Amino acid sequence: MPQSQANVPRTLILTGASRGIGHATVKRFQAAGWRVITCSRHAFPEKCPWMSGPDDHIQVDLADPADRARAVREMRIRLDHGPLHALVNNAGISPKGENGKRMGALDTPLDVWRQVFEVNFFSTIALARGLVEELTLAQGSIVNVTSIAGSRVHPFAGAAYATSKAALAALTREMAADFGPRGIRVNAIAPGEIDTAILSPGTEKLVAELPLRRLGRPEEVARAIYYLCTDESSYVTGAELHINGGQHV
Question: Taking burial as the number of CB atoms within 10 A of a residue's CB, which of 18, 63, 142, 158 is the most buried?
Fold first, then answer.
């Protein structure tokens, strides 16, 4: 961080903040004194786990390019065109078929593919490009949330979701190369089976085969995100950190 910005309160913009990993990430950064601007397609919940949340929440449909652009303008106003120290692209959707069935490459409608890529892939580069000046001021960090499904066929994650996450991993490398000269680091985390409300039936069979023999906790993912957004990882960029209890080995 430039010396002139050393005493400026640090700010995080986080998408997909309404549950699971997003909730845990808000709590981790707020505990460290960061201001957190949250974004999700839902209005801010009344039962709020963090202070100042309603004032720093932006409701946005990341599948809609026009609404994304509106949200970026709102983010810049909230920042007063000052520094943004971290952008965490956590929002993601994984549509299911009837009765929760996995949607494969043959049966996923093309409009569903487009919606998934708008949220999981295009929103990431749209927000990063839209906030690049604020990130440059802070010599900030971007963290993209990919998935273990981006590197192998997963029994529950659908084809559109998996390919969007594979594309996001490649985008992370490209962004690291292109944003790096501005002093902006870009990394990804790839969670495996994390104990959240969106786990699919049958996950326990996967867990039984993991080297650590347990689900990951959202706070464990949040700690990794925090690491990638602080000076503890000041020479780390273009990396994808696997958080999966050894599922990838």
Answer: 142
